[in-house]
Design brief:
heterodimer; A: 182 residues; alpha+beta; Heat Shock Protein 90; six-stranded mixed sheet; globular; B: alpha+beta; Glutaredoxin; five-stranded mixed sheet; 4 helices; 6 strands
Chain lengths: 182, 124
């Protein structure tokens, strides 16, 4: 993975496969304390404690089509090489929260990358799932709640290309406005 | 706090409603972009993004796009599956933005399978 936004897209895929209907994505840029935090919380089926522990092992997967599961280990590694940390909290039947902390200015910290495209890709791929995306940048904040968007759109589907294009531009402008970094 | 402007969203809604009222109909094509860890790392997001902008540019309303997880052929990612109604699904391998544009124009719109990019023709 070249960008952290791709890791986010990947982790969200786990959430949707776990049957989540609401996924919260939080990005916090705290330059004062040199921290970048990415948090993804879902209300999917969750994992038993032993499975949650094994999830960070690249040679563990719940799938049968291949013998490796690299999504979580990749993000965990990306966080740890920047002096950060990684946690998974999961409760069977309630959901899973994945938190990754990065050293904001660490030379090995990957760029956040194209967040707007990541967001519209996950919305387009999972129109039935709701996303709440919050981005904090040194006290300034941006928020997108697809439940509000759907409410306003009424019978127009959220995965309509024109709507997605609009959302992408909106996220791009919003992040610029709050001075979000890369 | 930066946020979505409701008035802008209303404008979009009215525009889309006006467009689709003219040519509402059934979906003719389903495109699945494979989005496992392998697919994403190989560039599936850009492929999906290109496809979405091609659809918007062409103004077609009968193509539906969805994503799926990894199906075990990780070394041939990014992969997409094109399913045209009443035809066998076609699985394309090693996709990128350029190939996606070609598949969209020639296969999805004009019905001509782009054989050089095909990994498999899926038969049930």
């Amino acid at each position: 993975m070249l960008e952290l936004s791709m890791n986010i897209l990947d982790i969200v895929e786990n959430s949707t496969r776990a049957g989540a209907t609401l996924i919260r994505i939080g990005i916090t840029e705290d330059r004062t304390n040199d921290i970048l935090r990415i948090e993804i919380a879902d209300n999917g089926e969750g994992m038993e404690p032993d499975v949650a522990r094994k999830a960070l092992d690249p040679f563990y997967t719940s799938k049968t089509v291949r013998r490796v599961g690299l999504g979580l280990p990749l993000l965990s590694h990306a966080a740890k090489i920047t002096g950060g940390g990684f946690t998974i909290e999961s409760k069977k039947g309630e959901g899973t929260t994945v938190t990754a902390n990065f050293g904001y200015r660490h030379i090995d910290r990957q760029p956040l990358g194209d967040i707007p495209t990541t967001m519209t890709t996950m919305i387009a791929g999972n129109p039935g799932v709701d996303f709440i995306y919050t981005h904090l940048s040194d006290g300034e904040s941006y928020m997108l709640d697809t439940r509000e968007v759907k409410n306003e759109l009424e019978d127009v589907p959220i995965d309509h290309p024109t709507v997605l294009q609009f959302l992408k531009e909106n996220i791009r402008d919003g992040l610029k406005e709050i001075g979000a970094g890369s | 706090m930066a946020k979505l402007k409701i008035e802008d969203l209303k404008k979009i809604k009215e525009r889309v409603q006006g467009e689709t009222a003219l040519r509402a109909g059934a979906k003719r094509v389903k495109v699945t972009v494979h989005m496992g860890t392998c697919g994403i790392a190989a560039g599936a997001r850009e492929v999906m993004d290109t496809l979405m902008s091609e659809i918007e540019e062409a103004g077609v309303t009968d193509v539906v796009v969805t994503t799926s997880g990894c199906m075990g052929l990780c070394s041939r990612e990014p992969e997409i599956t094109v399913e045209i109604i009443e035809q066998n699904p076609i699985l394309y391998e090693f996709m990128n933005s350029n190939k996606m544009r070609q598949v969209f124009k020639r296969h999805i719109l004009e019905g001509e399978v782009q054989t050089p990019f095909v990994l498999a023709k899926v038969t049930e």
